[in-house]
Backbone:
């Protein structure tokens, strides 16, 4: 079938992207789903820093590629062997397809699935297939097994989680990355308990979702750090008890507010310098959780002895250490109960052909979560 999609053919084009137009809206061929694959009509997709890092080249991927990994849609057709979903089901995408059999999957850590990671790096679906091609017949690569910046996608059944049909597309898409990653960093990776002090560095979609998750978990204080005043103001509305600008005094201020340092610091910026600040803001026995994606060339410097004599921990959190089939439904239940008002994360709504301007806002830091609602 023919689809419309946003294709990236070269990384590293200069800003502003509205002028250089790294993403081109093209008419592409989408092959039907093979065994254990499904055809999904995309309802909405979100713009994430993980997409931006491919556009600007700080996270190199094979080219050309149809971008987008945070999305939701409706299953239209299923390949042979699919039992988990059926045509008509609504689904949220998971950007790591868990095979269910490798060592990490076997111990309940599908975010670290080894075949899934290899396929994502290669730009293929987990079976090694590619279902996208252009007018010349050349294959295009899939972004994180999803390629959600399109009106339709073929993905592995391991890349989707069935959800209730009543959830609006623009809300459902948020659970594919921003909520899964930010809330997951709080509840799965950090395991925040009621009364724990939490500092969140960076208030993009993931960081603001972490604020929501910390509030839902009963943390106090919740200290939100960002250079932009409007984001700090929103964080206060969403449950932060204190907000701070990002400057050289941030660590001292956090340690003063929390009487010696927070129990958990969550870094969602993707900066080695900010990660060092987050680590310095924790108390003895504290956890520092890195869920932002830095440039691969960046390195972190911390006092090594503090890991021993202060029993402090520095941990990574990929996809919120989530089990998507478990976590997406329970986070949606928290949203429906009013405990996770994720609709507040949406700062802009745009069309597919406005995607480059959307990445300009994301690069400037002036957007929270921008959602493309597909026009069927």
Residues:
């Amino acid at each position: 079938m023919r689809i419309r999609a946003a294709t990236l053919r070269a990384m590293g084009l200069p800003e502003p992207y509205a002028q250089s137009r790294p993403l081109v809206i093209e008419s592409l061929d989408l092959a039907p789903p093979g065994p254990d694959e499904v055809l999904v009509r995309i309802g909405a997709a979100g713009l994430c820093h993980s997409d931006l890092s491919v556009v600007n080249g700080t996270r190199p991927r094979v080219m050309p590629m149809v971008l987008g990994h945070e999305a939701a849609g409706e299953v239209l057709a299923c390949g042979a062997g699919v039992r988990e979903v059926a045509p008509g089901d609504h689904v949220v995408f998971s950007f790591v397809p868990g095979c269910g059999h490798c060592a990490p999957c076997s111990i309940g850590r599908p975010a670290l699935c080894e075949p899934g990671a290899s396929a994502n790096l290669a730009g293929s679906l987990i079976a090694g297939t590619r279902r996208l091609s252009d007018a010349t017949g050349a294959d295009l690569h899939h972004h994180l097994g999803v390629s959600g910046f399109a009106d339709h996608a073929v993905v592995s059944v391991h890349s989707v989680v069935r959800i209730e049909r009543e959830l609006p597309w623009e809300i459902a898409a948020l659970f594919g990355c921003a909520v899964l990653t930010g809330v997951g960093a709080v509840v799965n990776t950090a395991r925040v308990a009621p009364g724990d002090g939490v500092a969140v560095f960076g208030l993009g979609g993931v960081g603001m979702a972490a604020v929501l998750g910390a509030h839902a978990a009963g943390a106090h204080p919740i200290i939100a750090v960002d250079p932009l005043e409007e984001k700090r103001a929103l964080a206060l509305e969403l449950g932060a008890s204190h907000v701070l600008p990002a400057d050289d005094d941030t660590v001292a201020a956090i340690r003063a507010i929390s009487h010696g340092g927070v129990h958990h610091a969550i870094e969602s910026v993707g900066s080695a310098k900010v990660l060092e600040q987050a680590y310095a803001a924790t108390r003895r026995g504290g956890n520092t959780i890195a869920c932002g994606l830095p440039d691969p060339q960046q390195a972190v410097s911390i006092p090594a002895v503090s890991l021993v004599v202060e029993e402090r921990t520095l941990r990574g959190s990929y996809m919120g250490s989530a089990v998507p089939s478990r976590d997406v439904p329970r986070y949606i239940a928290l949203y429906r109960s009013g405990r996770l008002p994720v609709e507040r994360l949406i700062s802009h709504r745009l069309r597919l052909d406005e995607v480059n301007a959307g990445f300009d806002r994301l690069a400037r830091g002036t957007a929270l979560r921008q959602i493309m609602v597909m026009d069927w």
